[in-house]
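Q: Hi! First time asking for a complex rather than a single chain. Here are the components, and I think there are two in total. Is that enough to go on?
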Amino acid sequence: MGVVGVHKNIKGEFSGMSGLFAAIYSGLAWVVSIIDPLCGPAGVFRLLGPDTLLACGDTGWGDEIAYGFLVTASLAIATLPVGLVAGFFVAVAKQSEERSLRLAADIYTTIFRGLPELLTLFIVYYGLQILVQQFLATIGYEGPVEINAFVAGMIALGVVFSAYCSEVLLSAFKAIPRGQYEAGDALGFHRGTTMRLIILPQLIRIALPGLGNLWMALLKDTALVSVVGLPDILRQTGIAARVTKQAFEFFGLACILFLILAMISSVVFSAIERRTKRAETGR
Amino acid sequence: MSIAETMISPQAPPPAPPKPYTLARFLGSVALGVWLALAVGIFFTVVGGWDPEKFSRYGPNFLSGLGVTLALVSSSILLGAVLSLPIALGRMSKHKLWSWLAYAYVYFFRGTPLITQLFLVYYGLGSFRPQLEAVGLWWFFRDAWNCALFTFTLNTAAYQAEILRGAIESVPRGQHEGAAALGLPERVAFFKVILPQAMIVALRPYGNEIVLMIKGSAIVAIVTVFDLMGETRRAFSRTFDYQMYVWAAALYLLMVELLRNIWGWLEARLTRHLKR
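A: Yes, that's all I need. Here is the structure of the assembled complex.
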């Protein structure tokens, strides 16, 4: 049966994830298999029964799509800290007194906010490939080089996220009065300590709504990485759609899965927002 | 008691203290250096790999791709603007059903990736070919460009409806009351009093939305529409020349920066009566 044949191919692709990611993956696989909301012991797709298209196992597409769901979520979660840290430093650079540093940071945001995410992804993906190939050629290795789509996606999305993030953080920085820095000085704090103890807690509170929007955009941008071969929600449902010829159902399912991710995020974000605002509620 | 006989003649200011070489300055120089090296590197690869034959073959393709991108974005923005008005009104409606429907629409289109929506329309509607043929709409959905236009219009309508709603709700209540006190009919009050003030608030988000659409439109290349990104991909797959992506990046940056500057000028001009 055609379905089974393609299914085997995809499995081969999965085990092809190399190096560090394979180690992390196998470590997490056990934990994930227990709490998997789609194909776990109490998963949604399990309830549908073994004869449906979405069954978990060799007869259906449930486990492939559940894997794609995990890949999408983990790509977004892995990109977030990279983008946040880079964005923070770019925002600090943007309000530096040094002209050259401000200019360099402005060039960064202008470029990466102006380029389409898809183009950034291609530039990173093929550019990395060429760079690595040239580097290996100088060492003396000639052969095909394949860049991990997850890493390329993480870099490209992280760069875009950090460019937007720096703008959000910059406007949050501007909302913090000078007196806060002066208070830090008056207490004899070092600059880093002032930042950590006084500025950052307020900064997070101010920037949180903006960062929430950026997170939603990041979540949606992960779908683009399927174009360079990452087995995420869109790619897995796309394969299923092509094989079963039921495109509307499977792409509709992809939309629903993205909606579920968005709903989970908005619940988490409102919880964090409540938590950061708990100091203000007494007033 | 002595008094000063002569005034002290004007003195030159003391020399400025030497600027300390701080860490920030060092980092700034390094970062600028990296950008400069990158720019020079790109310049030399472009000059070194310059091929007049390639330019004459793919240059016109790039221009036609640019035209397709601009046509797609401008028509979907305009159609979306028309569609967004009823959605925004539905969103603000007191009627439960309308507001719920509009909310669901907006939530769906803002909560899922544009590329998934495009696939849903382009590949998904193919499953309904008999039904679409029966209604006589199949010719429309058979073409990838039409599917892209349809999807983008629906998508941007959702975003624009939210912009519009936010802007309309930002107009103070007193403006409604003032219009009512003047005895203006509701329709006139909306179009002549509320909407003009709302549009000024909405101007900047609209600009951002157009930029987002220009950037988002790159994904139509995946469903075989030859826009700027599609032409770039085609040229790259034939030549394996990395320069193609550099050209595309330059064109996209040019579009976005031009739009941003025009929009900035427009905003300054339209809000000049609000300047203090």
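A: The CA atoms of residues 94 and 100 of chain B lie 10 Å apart. Let me know if you'd like any chain examined more closely.
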